[in-house]
Design a protein that fits this description.
The chain has 178 residues and is an alpha+beta fold. The protein has 2 domains: 5-102, Peroxidase, domain 1; 106-177, no CATH class. Helix content is 59%, strand content 16%. The protein has 8 helices and 4 strands. It has a 4-stranded mixed beta sheet. Strand 3 and strand 4 form a beta hairpin. The longest helix is centred in the first third of the chain and has 17 residues, at 24-40. InterPro entries: ATP_synth_OSCP/delta_N_sf, ATPase_OSCP/d_CS, ATPase_OSCP/dsu. It is found in: Cell membrane; Membrane. This is ATP synthase subunit delta.
């Protein structure tokens, strides 16, 4: 899933540092929050990647925007910036989350459904599909996709479990037509 070897190296370094300071859980929470912020609005990444804004201002921006974050995370962001790798931040975050989840027996999953799933439904999906992929739990992102008509589609890494009405209708169509 890595977009570059550098992203993997930075993620591994951050994970090892967090592990050696017994702060994996706190760092993972901070990295997840950064992922959420970057995912909601691309303007922060555009700003950070802009060559017209001096690095000193970008460093101050980190201190302001991520003021409550662990010092390890702030320092990692500044190193990534100083080394000219800020454009790889989303890939570094993705790699780090994979490492952290693997270490805790978890995995990231995306569940596509026609409506927002309840917490109970998400917990049942997590319990069911975690066993299928050999994990203890899944950290689920629920994506609403009205084109599915009904049912769910679960993606865990490269594995896709598709139990949607749209897929079943397409399969029935292929069977009937030949």
């Amino acid at each position: 899933m890595s977009q570059s070897p550098a992203a993997k190296r930075y993620a591994e370094a951050l994970f090892q540092l967090a592990n050696s300071t017994n702060s994996v859980e706190a760092v993972t929470a901070n990295v997840a929050e950064i992922k959420k912020v970057l995912g909601e609005d691309n303007s922060l990444m555009v700003l950070l990647d802009s060559p017209q804004i001096p690095a000193t201002q970008k460093r101050q921006l980190f201190d302001t925007v991520f003021a409550g974050a662990e010092q390890i995370v702030l320092n990692a962001l500044k190193v990534i910036l100083d080394k000219g790798r800020i454009h790889e931040l989303p890939a570094i975050i993705s790699e780090y989350m994979t490492l952290a989840y693997n270490a805790s027996g978890a995995a990231e999953a995306v569940v596509y459904s026609t409506t927002t799933l309840t917490e109970d439904e998400l917990n049942r999906i997590s319990a069911t599909f975690a066993k299928k992929v050999g994990k203890d739990t899944l950290h689920i992102t629920n994506v609403i996709d009205p084109s599915l008509l009904g049912g769910i589609k679960v993606q865990v890494g490269n594995l896709i479990y598709d139990s949607t009405i749209a897929t079943k209708l397409e399969s029935l169509k292929r069977t009937l037509i030949g």
